[in-house]
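Tutorial, part two.
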Amino acid sequence: MKEFVQKVRILTESLPYIKEFANKTVVIKYGGEALKDEVVSKTIIEDIALMKYIGIKPVIVHGGGVEITELLNKMNVKTEFVGGLRKTDKQTSQAVEMVLGAKINKKIVHDIQTHGVEAVGICGCDANLFEVQKIFPNGEDLGFIGEVKKVNEKLLNILIDNSYIPVIAPVSRDAEGNIYNINADYAALAVACALKAQKLVFLTDIEGVMRDRFDPTSVISTLKIGEIDKYIADKVIEGGMIPKVQSCKYAIENGVNTVHILDGRLEHSLLLEIFTHHGIGTMVEK
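Running the prediction step on this input gives:
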């Protein structure tokens, strides 16, 4: 009986959050270990299905870098990264479209629908979801690497309003038909801003933003956007975390209410963050 009482207490604790986020849009960037680990992946899909059942409107943007590299290795195509971005020639861009737009995207859709929730898999070129333009990081030409210039939020709202979960592969084509690889974090950022989402959630391979990157217990649970520049100057935030927190800041300055950096390696990380008093990871807010 005590076990059942504890379960009821957990449900009761989540009630205020269910009321607060009902009918609100939550954009989830889904990748890394959360995507690779079958056990964790199963719990993330369960979390998303439950969110939908209680009235939240999830939108998923997924990655798949490991699977892309595996396919390229089988094709004997060398993979090279510069500043965290994959150099992408035509052959690589075709592999990216194959892995993201077909294999991973459709698997996520299938997994969601096994829980009785409807999902639709789309990529950036469907109904011109993403208008894409080539980028030159630090002035370097990395091939077919693009960024989202414009989002067709009308398509997403049609799907959301008709009770579908959009599952988005971050790949698109330009006016000449060239396939562009888009960083999944930045694609999720563009989608969240276009939809003015209540929350943008990054499922990552770290515990959150930490005061000491070697100490997982030093996670900063709440980060104000006004503190970000100081943390960067003090080298509390450094390396690959800098563009991620700058993206969080940009999101909040462009209509997103809160942004969350969560450890996607942890089972049920979405529910732990959204529906508990203490949460996990780092929440960035205005």
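The mean pLDDT is 88. In part three we will examine how such features are distributed along the chain.
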